[in-house]
Amino acid sequence: MKPESEQTDGLPAPKRWFAASAMWLIIAISTIDGTIANIALPVIARDLGAEPVYSIWVINSYQIAVLSTLLPLSALGERFGYYRVYLSGLALFVAASTACALSRDLTVLVVSRFFLGLGAAGMIAVNGALVRFIYPKELLGRGIGYNALVIAIGSAAGPGIAAVILRFLDWPWLFALNVPLGVAAFAVGAFTFPRQRGNSPSFDMRSTALYILALGLSSLGLVQFAHGEFGWPVVLQTGMGIIALSGLVAISRHQSTPILPVDLLRIRPLKIAYSSSFFVYAAQMMAMVSLPFILHTHFRLDTFKIGIVLTPWAIATAIGAIVAGHRTEHNPGQLEALGAAVLALGLIGFTLALGSTSLAVLSICSLTCGIGFGLFQTPNNRTSLTSGPPERSGGAAGMQALARLSGLISGTALVAMLFQLAGEESHRVIAVAAVLAAIAAGIGLLRNLQLRKA
After folding, report:
1. Residue 99's pLDDT is what?
2. Can you tell me the distance from the alpha carbon of 12 to that of 27, in angstroms, rounded to the nearest whole number?
3. How far apart are alpha carbons 351 and 363 in whole angstroms?
4. 93 pLDDT exceeds 90?
5. Which residue has the higher pLDDT, 7 or 404?
6. In Å, how far are 172, 213, 246 from 257, measured between CA atoms?
7. What does the domain layout of the chain look like in residue ranges?
8. Are 289 and 412 in contact, with CB atoms under 8 Å apart?
9. Which CATH architecture does the domain made up of 1-203 adopt?
């Protein structure tokens, strides 16, 4: 019998479900954490005496951490074992959540959120790979489906959970609740996660260093520019990031399995899928960051009512994804374009409805956006993961995550820039988000027209 470290056909039944339950709990708290911070931003800014534009660093720091370490941590899992990276990420996530809950200063909270992002990156980077060792081959599809369901439920529940917590408790409790749940998941996972050995013979330190410098400095520079910082240190730092990125791309072109899989951009369907994903995720992030401020400042809605407005978005996303899952085999490109167009329509509705004080009207716009985003996600995922060579599936998943994260951080940066120029009550942010979603729809439409001509 093979030792557990070499087994690849899943864990035995009792242990499998304990490991899966620990993973579901981890996915739930990390997913919910990603949605509750947006709703809490106006309250955090008020309590810490910070300007709304500076409170956005709470989101920025998390995104920069994930973006600049995701693919290197995935490679680290290949080399030293997925479960080690996963549990280390969880431990850091719990410790950083404690620091966030104890923060009474915006700078401390921003730094704590950065480490929270590092922990989340460790879990996100190897989650999909670890699933393969938990379930046997005949149950792998079901296991992936379970994880997707937990993500959908967590996303749908996040705004409502945040609204309820903030109605009765202070915002630090949003982070404090991660601690006991994370400790429980760690205790179960430490004894049940599969202990497979890493499969990579070496770890490319040169590419890893260039990746962290390139993505870290470039994204930090983008965010600083968006916040109105144009000094020479920022310009120099951004320039160093661009130089590092150029070096990384040059090295990656000559590697069979590079950390930054630029070779996949030669495949046209993948290039289109990544581009569409960037614009849609940027549009959604712009809305999710700006709407709590607009609803709180302009309409004087409390966090509970803001949660009521945004909850339909998450629920509709799950419904739209399920519907798309049954239709994506027929024409994924067409469905992808339709989803982006519906998202743009919902955002346009928001720009018009923001003159209304009706929660029902705002919730309908939220519902429309969620349906569009759900319809977009499933076919985009399918194209991103199946249009490349099977042996490059890991690289395709990495590029998909990179496109999404780049969209998220760009969307957040655009919100900061527009808040600087027009104030946090401005409806222009939502209008720009609608334009980005419309661009994604246009990209999908052009792809479908080209396929018909061919």
Report:
1. 95
2. 22
3. 13
4. yes
5. 404
6. 42, 20, 18
7. 1-203, 205-254, 260-454
8. yes
9. Up-down Bundle (1.20)
